[in-house]
Amino acid sequence: MAGESKFGEVVTLLARDAPDELEKLRKRFPGATALLRPGGVMGGSASEIACAVTIAALEKYGRSAIQLLPRLRQRLAWSWRFDLVAKFAAACGSGGTIGALAAGSSTDKAIVSASVALLGSICTLLFAYLQRDEAAGSVPEAYNRLISALAQADELQRSLPPLCAHSAPTPELEEALKKANEVAKTLNELWLRFS
Known about the structure:
With 195 residues, this protein is an all-alpha fold. Helices cover 77% and strands 2% of the residues. The longest helix is centred in the middle third of the chain and has 56 residues, at 47-102.
């Protein structure tokens, strides 16, 4: 519907990061109490309410995303280290097996080298399994999604106030509000997964 916007994810973000700000909005719009509850909002609301809530949430978005970035970086660093060690063990074990067999050493040395290679390969497979979450994607994908959402939030923070200043809602405003809700959804999902 023209002039109506859904912003449940934005309200959820604001409720988590700035409950005092959300309370101010509830007082400013007393008729919209049901719309200003965290969670999915059914139906739409006036663009004025959606603009106020979205602008308030976007002001808090960057701080929340930046708090999440070190956690993602740390998980990324540990996963890359583990992957490197596992691949190095597999390569050394394979090389040791080939060297032991080529030098005519006893089969015991070749079995030990092959065991190291097998362990390295199993660790590499385990790493790939642990890094992949079919529902949410991998840690590198989550990191990239967060960086992209942070850039989109910054862009929306600059472009939304002039769009909200118009007296009548425009298709551009509706699209910006929809995009802001999607950006908030990204942060909410990543916050639940990595916080």
